[in-house]
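Most newcomers find our protein records easier to grasp once they have seen one. To make this concrete, we reproduce a full record directly below:

===
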Amino acid sequence: MRHLVSAMLLLVAVIHLLPLSGVLGAERLAALYGLPFDEPNLAILMRHRAVLFGLLGLFLVYAAFQPTLQALAFVAAFASVGSFLWLAGSASGVNPQLGRVVTADWVALVCLAVGGAALLYLRMRG
């Protein structure tokens, strides 16, 4: 069961680390999201977003092997995934690339639910 918790955190970490390549510039961001990032201010904001996703992803990897941090990791990941899915669900006209991100976050949400339930079971069992 402990391995299931770690495995779910690692899968969600990979999903959060994938956008890190956006740090490399507007061209990479365009490939990830299917949008032009010609405006420098928007590119800076999105590159910073990539850094933040990378930091969260690295924290999730670390927490996968540190049981004392796992509950916090699940809370942080649920906040990230849940807020994105809520925002994407409240918008219309999501392009195919962003649709892939939505799908990946649904996968992450399932992993978080499974891993979170396993962690709760382990904690309740003592």
Remarks:
- The chain has a mean pLDDT of 96.
- Residues 96-125 form the longest helix (30 residues).
